[in-house]
Hints:
The protein is an all-alpha fold. The chain has one domain (14-138). 77% of the residues lie in helices and 0% in strands. α1 runs antiparallel to α2, α1 packs antiparallel against α5 and α4 runs antiparallel to α5 (108-141). The longest helix has 34 residues, at 108-141. It is elongated and about 55 Å long. The two termini are 23 Å apart.
Amino acid sequence: MTITIDPSVGGPGVTELVTRTESLLAHRRSMAQWWVELVALLDALGARVSTLRQDQSSESPLSEQIRMDAPHLYGVLRRLDEESEELQEDLLRVRISAGESMGDESRLGDLSQDIRGVLRRLRRLERRSNDVVLDAYDRDIGGE
């Protein structure tokens, strides 16, 4: 499947990490600590997305249930999973770029723009993924 928030998993969720990263980008500083915080947030976000993708892969129990009970949504889930994989790769790319750019003010504008683009896509994907799961549950799995 794709990225959704599971409150039973410890630590901050994707939404909280995205919000923290956006806040950090809005308050840019040239201090080394700012760069360290940015890279740490991108690392945490990448790890969280990776864990969620593994937990909710197309072989997960929830995806299997949707495939069986709401087959009309399974194709959408597969496309969302593909988008999620691409997004995870882009997140890794901006994380590497942030590490290479540490302290270089001249690269900050482009880097911030790239990170904001990934964060927007991540929020949109998360929202769409949750909508599909809720739709499947309400109509096909358990919303009787």
